[in-house]
Structures are given as structure tokens and as C-alpha cells.
Amino acid sequence: MSEVIEPGLELDERRNRFISEHLRRITIQIYRIVGNLADAQDLTQEAFIKALQHEEQLKDEQKAAHWLSRIATNTAIDFLRRSGRASFCEIENAPVSHAESPEQLLLRSEQRNYLEDGLRLLSPRERAALLLRDVEGLPAEEVAQRLNCSKATVRSHIANARVKFRRYVERRKR
Hints:
Helix content is 73%, strand content 0%. By secondary structure, the chain is mostly helical. The protein has 2 domains: 14-89, Orthogonal Bundle (Rna Polymerase Sigma Factor, Chain: A), CATH 1.10.1740; 102-174, Winged helix-like DNA-binding domain superfamily/Winged helix DNA-binding domain (Arc Repressor Mutant, subunit A, Orthogonal Bundle). It is globular.
């Protein structure tokens, strides 16, 4: 007796694997751009919906991962443009080290707030370029692909972001 296989099963399995393999990375990528966990979760869902609407793009897994990152970045930037804001919150599910003293926890929190305040000064594209290049460690070529612009534009965004951040640091020192 032969087993009956549903025609959409393989496709569903491929979709589920694609989502599970990339969900955490994309959520973190979007969170770093929008700075709000609830918004990042919603935008992650939106990015996956957009990606899964184009099955043909998912056949090559390496290209699909880059394509998904680009969709996620653009979805986050579009959200920031639409909302006209960038809010930041703590990721409360992060494990707390018991080895840290209350003073160390306070210092880490102050440093995070300091960094977030500086990032708020940047435009969405500057923030995205800086985070993808300096935090994610991506080469300028890949940042350009994800932001759908030239390498020269990426370098300009990063240079502008670094200048703004440097000025912010200098003002805070006074």
C-alpha cells in the first residue's frame, strides 16, 4: 500500500524550515534598526509574509537569506519613515548574570541608554548602515545590497553617522 503525500506538504516544510532558520536573526536585525521589541516582532512577521509571497526567491537558500535581510531592513526603514519616530526599549528576556553587582548592572544600563540616545540622532538609513556595518560586521557591498543603494552611499551614511555620534560623545563629555 503506497502512502499518499499531500502536494503542499513539501512546500510547507520548506517554508517552516526557512522561518525557523532565520527568525531570530531577522528579529534582532529589525530590533537594532527600530529599537522597540514589540515593533520588531510585528515587522519581522511582515517581512516573512512579504518574503513567502515570492516562493521562487526561496529556492537558493543563500540568496534567500540575503534577500530576506534586505526585505527586513527595508521594512524597518519604511516603518520608521511612516511612524516618524524611533523608540527604544529593553529586551526583558535577556538573561541576567548573577556575577554582576548592582553597580555593574547600573553602569551597563547607563551605557546602553547612552548608546541608544546617540543612535536616535541618526537618520533611519544612517542607523541601519552603521549597525549592519559596525555591529553585524557586514562588508560595505552587502550593506549596499540590503539598503538598495550604492557602496558610495553606504560609506557616506556610515561617515555621517560616525560624525554625528562623535559630536554626541563630545557634547556629553562636557
